[in-house]
Amino acid sequence: MGVGHGHGHAGGTTTGHAGGRHRWRLAISFAMIAAFFVVELVVGIVSGSLALISDAGHMAADVVALGAALVATKIATREDSTGRRTYGSYRAEVFASGLAALMMLGVAVYVVVEAIGRMGEDVDVETGPMLVVGLLGLLVNVAALLLLRAGAKDSLNVKGAYLEVVADTAGSVGVLAAGGLILATGNGVWDTVVAFLIGGFVAVRAVVLGREVLAVLGQHVPAGMEIEAVTASLASVDGVCDVHDLHVWTLTSGMNVATAHLVLSEGADATVALRAGQAVLREQHQIEHATLQVEGHRSTACDEVSW
């Protein structure tokens, strides 16, 4: 005996999708940071500041992250006209995040290699443009932070963009610190030191982001969730005597999905058990979409599956 539960995922609407409601915040932040990235890169090359160039590279990754978040909200709220995307297009955000991680790693490697190559050399850095651009960068980042903060409370997609800008704000502070140290000591080595630190910081962030992307694409159990606890919750539902073939994974940020087979005790009401199981997953584990199959006895077909 089996009772299924499923949803069609043809797409969403801007009203129902938190990221879609805050798309305008992403759009304005993207425009500001993209424009400043060009300014910072040009000034960094002209002034010879590796710290500025490294921070520009970091900001480039932020431009990609913000752009990906912006595009992902558009794709996620778009209706599926093919009928073949049964889960919608929410994974676009994950693929975009993977691209951002690769770009960040590339920037980090370039900056660290350049910093190592400069060791032992006399470095001449124009601190005036460096300090001016560093200060402007800080102001742009703070403006973006204020803009994204409200949206970060509602949407994990916007929250990811917000955290990207938080990290870039730290890079702007690093540029200002390098300029100040060079002015105070007259030693251009501080530009290289700060660039090295920024490069290391970007690399760590890239690795963390990359691992999260791979975990989603690998359909791992969502971070912070214990599969044993989910099994126990389902097993505690009245009328359920066994739980098997439980799978839980993340579709995209904030969207966890589960499937499971529930074996019922003799005389148990299948519809009541099904609804109770879905309620348990939703209320105790924040799994909004669950496809549960109820059985009068454990199916031998499940045991015969080799994977």
UniProtKB/TrEMBL annotation:
Q: Where in the cell is it found?
A: Membrane
Question: What keywords appear on the UniProt entry?
Answer: Ion transport, Membrane, Transmembrane, Transmembrane helix, Transport
A matching Pfam family: ZT_dimer
The major lineage groups are: Bacteria, Bacillati, Actinomycetota, Actinomycetes, Propionibacteriales
- Tell me where on the tree of life, at the top rank, the source sits: Bacteria
Q: What is its main location?
A: membrane
According to the record, the segments passing through the membrane are: 26-50, 56-73, 94-116, 128-148, 160-183, 189-208
> Residue limits of the Cation efflux protein cytoplasmic domain?
224-295
Instruction: Tell me its family.
Output: Belongs to the cation diffusion facilitator (CDF) transporter (TC 2.A.4) family. SLC30A subfamily.
Report the source organism.
Nocardioides aromaticivorans
Q: Know the name of this protein?
A: Cation transporter
Classify the protein's membrane topology as the record does.
Multi-pass membrane protein
Xref: InterPro entries: Cation_efflux, Cation_efflux_CTD, Cation_efflux_CTD_sf, Cation_efflux_TM, Cation_efflux_TMD_sf, CDF/SLC30A
Q: Which residues form the Cation efflux protein transmembrane domain?
A: 27-217
Q: Does the keyword Heme apply?
A: no
